[in-house]
Structure formats: C-alpha cells, structure tokens
Amino acid sequence: MTRQETARLSKQVQGININQHKETTQLSKRAQNVNTSPTTCHPAQPKAPSSISSLNSNSSSTELSSSIRTKKQNENCLVTNKLLSTTIHVESVLSPKDVIRSLFLGMPVDLNHFKKLIDKTSLLDEAIKLGDGDVVVAVLLYLQKTLHQSVLFSVLESRQVAADQYIDMLEKQNCYKEAATLCSQMKRNREAAVHLYNKVLREKKKDLLPSLQHLCKYEFQILSGVETETEILKEHIQLLERQAPIASHQVPAKELVSDKTSPLIGPPIRQDSLLGSSLLATLQYCCRYHLKSPENLLVSPVGLKSTFPITDRQFAWNACVGQLLSGKDPSPSLLAKGLFGAPKVVAGLSVPRVLEVAWKMEGPPQTFDQLLPLIESSQLRYQLAKRYNRHRIVIDILTSNKDRLALLRYRDSLNDAAEMEYVNNILKVSSTRWKN
C-alpha cells in the first residue's frame, strides 16, 4: 500500500468517527429536551430514525419520556380524577376538604382516618363551609359516635349552624335531655326549657303530675329568663290537679247517652281518658255533663273559665259541642240579648258553622228554629232552611218575598199535611199583594 492510499484511509476513518460523535451529541440533546419539555397527556410522535443505532437510541428515549409523562400526569390530574371518577381510593383522600367534596358527590369515604380532634373540627368546618345539610349531618353523626358529649358540645358551642342541625338530630332521636343540655350551654334557656318539658311529656308516664312538679321545682329553677314557660307549666300542673277529681266524679246514668261524633270536631273525650287531656277537651267534657254546676265546684265549666285563660269564643264553642254531644239544645248557651233586646249569637260565632255541626250531630229541631232567623241574608237563610228541612222558615221567607208561584211549587213538594195547611192559610189572606 502506498503512502497516498494510507492517508486516504485514515481520513475516511476520521470522518466516520466525526459522524458518530455528531449523532451521539444530537441524541443527548434530544433526551435533554424531553426531560425539560412540559408534560402533556398526548406525547408528540418522534421523527423517523436515519439508522439502526439511532432507532435504538430513540426507542430508549421514548420509554424514558413516557415514564416521566405518566408520573407528571398523576400528580397534575389528581383532583380532576377524584371529581370525575365513580370510585375513589380512600388512601388518596387525605385532606378534610377532599373528604367533604367526596361526601357531597356521593363517593365512598372512610371518616375513621381522622383521629385527632383538630382534624375532626376541620372536617366539620369544611362541611359547614360547603353549606349542604346532609353532609353536615353525616359529619355530626361521626362526631357523635367518636367524641364524648362534653367535647362535642364545646365544639358546637361556637358553630351555630352545626348546633341547630345537631339539636334537630337529637329531637328525632328522642334525646330531649341532651338537646336541653346543649341549649343551656349555648345560653338558649327558653329552648332548653321546652326540651325538658317535651321530655317529660314524651315519656308518657301513667302518673304525669309528680314528674311535672319535679320539673317545675328543680330543673326550671336553674334556668333564667323562662318565666313564661314556668307559668305554662304551673297551669298544666293545676289542670292535672283539677282533672283527677273530675274524672272520679260519677256521672248520672241517665246522662250517659250514646257518643256522637262528627268529622268537624273529632271524637269526644271519655271519662277514662280525661286525665292528661287538654284544657279545651276538659272544658268540653264539663259542658257535656256539668253545664249547670255552681262555679265553686271543680266540675263547673264557669269555674274552669275563671281559673284558666279561656276566651269567650272557646267557651261558647265547647259549650255548644258539649250540649250537642249530650243530645240537648245548645241555643241557651249561644244566644244573648243584643241591641233593643233582639237575640244575637255570643262571641261572634258563625251561625252557618254552628248549624252545620248541629246537623252532622243530629241536633234537636229547636236549635235550627232558634238560629236560622239570625242569618241576615234571606237568600242564605232560604238555602239553609231548605237543606235542614225547616219548612215553616222556608214558607215565611217566600211569603215575605211575595212570591206566590214559588210558594205554590213548594207546597206541592211537601208531604206534611200541617205544613200544607199552613201554606193554604197564607194564600187565603186577601191583604197580601203578590208579585205574581
């Protein structure tokens, strides 16, 4: 080999080394660009390799960049995956805010991961901030199960919204004593008194009087600003003390008629269920059996009215119903002298309403004869008289209207000979100037 050929070969080898060095430099730069470029969910397609060595290098670089992109995607899209996925791993939810979001979206979460009091308090604060009542109740149920009552109440004392929700929960759980304790701790003494009162009533003890007396003597005395509630409680105690002798009072057998009822007033109170009934039910019972009793007796309705705050309207209505239940005419209890001595209904009672109740309860006919003339509208009086079959009143209205044809038609519809004779006598009077 000549010296010229040797020099040519050495130059070719150097050229090949230079090309390989350039390719290696390009591959390293491309790998650095892949590491520093922003991660996307869809990586760009690599260019076609120019040789086998470049293909192998690009393959390794693509695998490296793919692993980097996957890691970045999990970190950046974590919150989006939580909100959009139908299931969620409990281990990936660590903050109270994420847990409350998951509860709101209906995803399964485990609240037992929050062990410390500060974490549980943060959980409740996030629920209140979200403003969804169901989420707040879910957190409160967890706190009720995992916290002592005194600790939970101290947490709720400064959180009004959560405290109101918890009080509603306690009412549904019939835990009125706990609700009263929380209200008292929050300086809401009137609500606490109502819960204590409700607790005694809900227990449905056979002997209610001692429980109410204990409540008035001890528990209400601790609370301040509950004068109105205390007065109501004392009236209840006084009513129970009065009901016991009324229930034991023997009712004459002749007054024990069959019980009447009406959908307008409900079933009447009985002697065996009188103890513990309401004030108006007791008044109705006394009006039914002891309406004429002297005021100084416990069974006297007038005595009840003078002892308890009963309005004139309440007294008149219950006296009417009591008399109807006993099969008597309630008109004497309902009528009073008005202007110029004309009769009027007491306490502003509605005459059509009273007549409707009397009709449903099969009241005596004299009740309708006494009350129908007090209706001012002749048209309404005529309609009600026809409905309740008070023929004389209908005939008198048609006579006052001087409607001879209507009077004749009504006479033909009657089956009572006495009423038909009454119409004929009216028609015979020559002084009446008929319209037709």
Sheet-strand content, in percent, reads under 5%
Helix and strand element order: HHHHHHHHHHHHHHHHEEHHHHHH
N-to-C CA distance: 157 Å
Radius of gyration: 46 Å
Which stretches are low in confidence, meaning pLDDT under 50 for 5 or more residues running? 34-69, 86-93
- Separate helix tally: 22
Give the helix proportion (percent range): 55-70%
Q: Describe the main β-sheet briefly.
A: 2 strands, antiparallel
Mean pLDDT, as a whole number? 82
- Give the overall shape: elongated
Q: Report the count of strand segments.
A: 2
Secondary structure category: mainly alpha
Strand order of the largest sheet: 1-2
Describe this structure in words.
- Helix 4 (96-104) packs across helix 5 (117-130) and helix 6 crosses helix 8 (160-172).
- The chain starts with a helix and ends in an 8-residue tail after the last helix.
- Residues 34-69 and 86-93 have low confidence and may be disordered.
- The protein has a two-stranded antiparallel ribbon.
- The protein has 22 helices and 2 strands.
- The chain is elongated.
- Among the domains are: 1-37; 260-364, no CATH class; 375-436, no CATH class.
- The longest helix is centred in the first third of the chain and has 34 residues, at 3-36.
- The protein is mainly α and 436 residues long.
- 21% of the residues are buried.
- A hairpin with a 5-residue loop joins strand 1 and strand 2 (343-345).
